[in-house]
Task: structure prediction
Amino acid sequence: MDPVSARLFVATIETGSIAKAAEREHIVPSAVSKRLSELEALVGTPLFERGLRGVRPTPAGEAFEHHARMVLRMLDRMEDEMSDYAEGVRGHVRVRASASSLTAGLPADIRDFLRERTHLRLDLEEIETPGIVRDVAEGRADIGIGPNLFIPGTLQLFPYRSYDLCVAVPEGHPLAQRPSVSYLETLEYDQVEQTTGSVLAQLMDGVARQASVMKRTRIRVRGFDTLCRMVGAGMGIGLAPSVMEASLGGRYGLRFIPLTDHWARPQICIMVRDVDSLSCAARDFVEHLRARSLVPGRTETLRVAHPDHAAFRGRPPAAR
Result:
């Protein structure tokens, strides 16, 4: 499969029409049709169902689309990296990180890594954990860093940090003097939660649903800083990593009460598709983070699920 055929195939999928794909890609429709027929001959099975209203992929076409997009992403990445080298850059690492990893020391580790690698480019983007897993699995990122709140599956994970989940409450709240509390006990009060795309929010929804307990989510926010600000303003109580207490507890007048639930002690992990297939720069960054790991006695490779949203809906992780 050549790049032109891959782009025409994807364009046909996205537009639902050979004519529209040809118009978008500035090529005659007969040439698009010929390319698609050649692809079907190559794989030995129909990739499209053709009708009066256009075309749609067969099951084989849907599978082929995934691989075609992977090929195009790899080619785009190659062009970007070659452009970087032409500009004097000597390596490019694309990183996706969760809010919890950024509060657990990741910025300092990145700073130390780049200090002696001035010609290396590292792109860091903070996104929610399901997006991290998806981007790494589908090749849009080299490395992901986030919590291991997943079911068994297909990415390689290496332990990086660990933390406790706590419920953040205002200092005068009825739970403020408790040494610990279960998550179900916190559901007596209004909740401030992460957005629904957050794996933590999906986990909380699943725990409450399995216990048949009504959850009163008063407001959803993006990021733990905003969550703690809303809790401090009296909008409810919310879950946050214990590492946030030092920086946000005093600022917003909060107490952080540890949860007793078995799933409330997640690890932040380094996620890759295959460490051996990483570029030298990305592999060096993984080794740098592993050397800075604060999780004792855990060096084996773990695995997580392919980032299908269904894998995250309402399934608390197994006890560890």
User: Anything to note?
Assistant: Residues 59-86 form the longest helix (28 residues). Residues 297-320 have pLDDT under 50 and may be disordered.
